[in-house]
């Protein structure tokens, strides 16, 4: 059996810029004393991200959750209307709907990629529905063509939560080209991070102005406050980290692609393990490496901890089972999502694991399954 890893191995390890570059950037911040409120680093990061991610306009935020709330605000959906969404995501996807005064309605998933199932969404549309909030979970793109058709037929808005989809392309088209708005997260656990951060790439006319208003309390000038807003501004220090990490995220993606290949060659087709694969023509964001364990997921998850390997059960529990949503009459029956929540395990996934560690982890998982006591799986 594999020996215990000397140091804990977590599901991710944040990309950090070279300290010397951080110090040089901090010296500039100290000289100017501009430390927040859309300063020069903020502006530079926003325009560089627009060049990478696209959208008709792109607006930077202090985190992905604020960016989601701002995207919902920008589409000016009727108060109290229903937003059809996935139960299989991080809490923020649904909390953003609720905190904006709208009602989440959960629909079930496609079995292969665990994204929202367009047919399940169709079945949940009522005259109260105003929007679909779909998540490109793990960077697997939603069925954007089907959702475009539904949008046209039912006159709905579409927001894509693209927190896991930085750099994802579909047949050469950037993921932000689809829907009314796409929301990205730059949290420490994301491939590209600014420690905390996020943005909205928006495709509706006037949407950018509404996002900028929301980000800064609705303040347009010293004499003019246009609308209700909050503080969604990214600080100069966070923007500096983002700018420096832009210099190295492509290298990290390339290293993660090697780790992916190692895991695939070790695990694909092995007993009780299913590795979800990208559809043809998708350029991956290399954000997560989820596997599905058809039996004994929690046994494997717990046993790995005793070897100092800390995988994550993203996304268990389902959002529809949270205390604050489980009593919604719209929570419904979600068998595909329930099964995904029982089976998925996100493996440690970052570039440094290409040094042989990924192979050791994959072999450890296989041996844990092979040597499990009877009844444990
Ligand atoms: N939509 C979706 C689909 C999302 O997944 C998220 C965030 C959002 C929206 C909202 O975006 P933000 O508002 O967060 O920008 C993490 C993240 O906090 C969260 O950003 C992320 N999704 C979610 C999937 O994962 P936890 O509770 O798993 O984080 P934590 O602290 O347990 O970190 C995981 C592991 O990463 C740790 O065991 C160790 C390692 N780590 C973590 C941090 C923070 C480090 O090595 N260094 C660090 O600084 O939520």
Task: Give structural notes.
The chain has 377 residues and is an alpha/beta fold. The protein has helices spanning 19-32, 40-53, 64-74, 91-99, 118-124, 144-154, 207-215, 236-246, 249-267, 297-306, 335-343, 357-370, and strands at 57-61, 82-85, 103-106, 129-135, 157-161, 169-170, 173-174, 181-185, 198-202, 219-221, 224-225, 273-274, 282-283, 289-293, 344-347. The strands form 4 sheets. It has a 7-stranded mixed beta sheet with strand order 1-9-8-5-4-2-3, sandwiched between helices. Helix 1 packs antiparallel against helix 8 (236-246) and helix 2 (40-53) crosses helix 8. The radius of gyration is 21 Å and the shape is globular. The model has no long low-confidence stretch (mean pLDDT 96). The chain binds ligand T4K.
Keywords:
binds ligand T4K, seven-stranded mixed sheet, 377 residues, three-stranded antiparallel sheet, alpha/beta, 12 helices, single chain
Order of helices and strands: HHEHEHEHEHEEEEEHEEHHEEEHHEH
The low-confidence parts are: none
Give the bound compounds. Answer: ligand T4K
Alpha carbon gyration radius: 21 Å
Strand order, sheet with most strands: 1-9-8-5-4-2-3
Q: What characterizes the major β-sheet?
A: 7 strands, mixed
- Mean of all residue-level pLDDT scores: 96
Task: Please provide the count of β strands.
Answer: 15
In terms of quaternary structure, what is this? single chain
Provide the structure class: alpha/beta
Shape descriptor reads globular
From the N-terminal CA to the C-terminal CA, the straight-line distance is 18 Å
User: Given the structure, what is the number of helices?
Assistant: 12
Q: Tell me the helix content.
A: 25-40%
Question: What percent of residues are in strands?
Answer: 15-25%
